[in-house]
Amino acid sequence: MEEIRIPSENAPPAEPIIEFRGVSKTYPTGTHALEDVNIRITAGEFVFIVGSSGAGKSTFMKLIMREEKANTGLIRVNGFNLTTMPRKQVPMLRRTMGIVFQDFRLIPTMNVFQNVAFAMHVVGASDRNVRKEVSRALSKVGLGNKARSMPAQLSGGEQQRVGLARALVNSPDLIIADEPTGNVDPNMSYEIVSLLTEINKRGTTVLMVTHDHNLVRDFQHRVIMLERGKIVADNAGGSF
User: Fold this and answer.
1) pLDDT tens digit string along 146-158?
2) Residues 190, 212, 222, 138: what is their CA dihedral angle, to the nearest 10 degrees?
3) With CB atoms counted within 10 Å of each terminal CB, which end of the chain scores lower, N or C?
């Protein structure tokens, strides 16, 4: 069976898929969320973002998705300049990324197939392409036999795998996983990160926020640690 279309491992080197230069973010409340952050993440990397509560992880992700704007500095994501990007271009940016949430965010009145298909309908895919790609995505995450199940009939781990299929179905350049293992048991946590790692091996960039130090240690990917809005460590190989 043909695999889901994702970038080849042998693709030529690309510009950084995510770049922060001197980025700072202060909220109207006066909270300094990020201060002078400089990061370069190249295409094909798998990067864990770690740090305690309030370290700036959520703000970092919101800036990448353009849910928030930086006060100072330059941000580039998937070829878009987020510093100067008009609001009307934000949907175009988000079509280049797949997002996996901690709380699954499945639509309870839609079955598994429909939840994954929704991400394709949003970008105007044809019904024929939707049927083909959704089936592939569900097979990829081991849920080919659950297409007609409702979210309430699934375990937490299965719901998160539906979320991963939804993030993957449009063949994004970048997958953002925001605490994807926060609501599943330890065994399923390893399954989720293993799936993300396999996707990454095929060339898709993965950025994952986590508080699980065991996952970080065991999967040996690059680790960026935030503390009080600053990068305090940036290491390869799962050490921090």
Assistant:
1) 999 999 999 988 9
2) 30
3) N
